[in-house]
Specification:
Blueprint lengths: L6 H4 L3 H11 L9 H8 L25 H12 L15 H15 L5 H14 L6
Pfam families: MRP-S23
Subunit structure: Component of the mitochondrial ribosome small subunit (28S) which comprises a 12S rRNA and about 30 distinct proteins.
Organism: Caenorhabditis elegans
C-alpha cells in the first residue's frame, strides 16, 4: 500500500536535510538556499511534524452549534427580518439585542425552559420599546 509521505520526508524535514548536506560538505555554505538564514534566525514555534494525523475521508464532520446560533435561528424563524444589517453601524441588531436580553433572563430564571425564556425575553423587549415583528 502506497503512502502519501515519501521516505525522504520521513527522514527529516527540509531544514535538517539541508543542514546535513552542509555539514557533510555536499553543499557549499555560499550555495545554501535563501530561506535557510531566515529559518535559522526565526525558527517555527512548533517543529514541523511529518506524522500528522489527518481525518479519514469517511469520517463525518462534527456539527458545531453554539447556544447563540440555535437561539438566533429560532429568533429569525419566529421574526423574519426585513431590514438589512449594516456592518459599519455602531448599533446592535435586533437579534443581538434579543440574545443579550435572553442571556440576562436566563441568568435570572435558571430553572425555566427554553420556550419560557424565549417568551419572557419577548415580553421584556416589548416593555423596553423594541417592537418584534
Amino acid at each position: 500500500m502506497a503512502s502519501f509521505i515519501t521516505r525522504a520526508e520521513r527522514s527529516g524535514n527540509i531544514f535538517s536535510r539541508v543542514t546535513g548536506l552542509i555539514r557533510a560538505g555536499q553543499l557549499n555554505w555560499a550555495d545554501r538556499p535563501l530561506w535557510y538564514d531566515v529559518y535559522v534566525s526565526s525558527p517555527p514555534l512548533t517543529p514541523p511534524d511529518w506524522n500528522v494525523k489527518l481525518a479519514k475521508y469517511d469520517e463525518p464532520i462534527r456539527s458545531i452549534f453554539y447556544e447563540e446560533d440555535v437561539l438566533r435561528a429560532k429568533f429569525y424563524k419566529t421574526y423574519r427580518s426585513t431590514a438589512g444589517i449594516q456592518v459599519d453601524s455602531s448599533r446592535t441588531s435586533v437579534s443581538q439585542q434579543f440574545i443579550n436580553e435572553y442571556k440576562l433572563v436566563k441568568s435570572e430564571n435558571a430553572e425555566a425552559t427554553d420556550d419560557q425564556l424565549f417568551e419572557m425575553t419577548q415580553k421584556r423587549l416589548n416593555e423596553n420599546g423594541i417592537v418584534l415583528k
